[in-house]
Amino acid sequence: YTMDLIYQTLYKLRVECGFNGYIHVKAIPGADPVLIEKSGFLADRMSINLELPTADSLIKLAPYKSRTTILKPMRQIQNGISNQSLLLSDSNHKQPLSTRTNQVKRFVPAGQSTQMIIGATPENDFQIMSVAESLYQKFSLKRVFYSAFVNVTQNSDLPSLPGGPPFLREHRLYQADWLLRYYHFSVDELLSENNPNFNIYLDPKCDWALRHLEFFPIEINRASYQTLLRVPGIGTKSASRIVKARRNARLDFADLKKIGVVLKRALYFITCSGKMMYTTKMDEN
Q: What is the pTM (predicted TM-score) of this model?
């Protein structure tokens, strides 16, 4: 019933009111697949919230939801996006070059996402990130969102969280998620069963670097793009700029600062022409 109201609202916005702006629709687990499909052709992005990382936590706090009712429509949306991509590709190839367009009605063109509540149940960061990694790999999600638990109702079944909502933990999970999606890290590199939670003092990338000092320092003028991405203080844009700039000249620390490298973080892990910015002896401690 709720999904039917969502579809009717979407139809009114898109067709009757002519609204062409961005619309993100929350699909309802267990909804009629036909309604999900119809809504997908009217929305830009769709999401079905996983809510909690494990099936046991769902049974305890959200018994009206199950892994099956959540993952089934998630798979439907993934298949719809995939089939749409194949259709558009095939359609474009069959048309003359001068008439190729994307006028075919798109199904969820901005992809799908999901959300997990953090801190209401006892899962550690390793479990949470493993679930996220699996969703990215198996369901082609665009984003996994992490929401720090806030106990609004003071229900006895929920944790009291005397330290308040775990916003720092949420922040660390987002940082790690970024490393999975753009920096070619895997969860097993960041965490393990023996080290299941992120460092509260260091971001996940810096924490990884300090635990793997055997890889550093790296030479800026020779390191591959993938290796540059592993250096704290070097992002995707600055790594690309380094690779491009060093084709014409050898780079020094002043050049790196102009490029956008955060030297106060990177200087411990890099050399320029074989020299460190400052003579620094380092160990993990």
A: 0.88
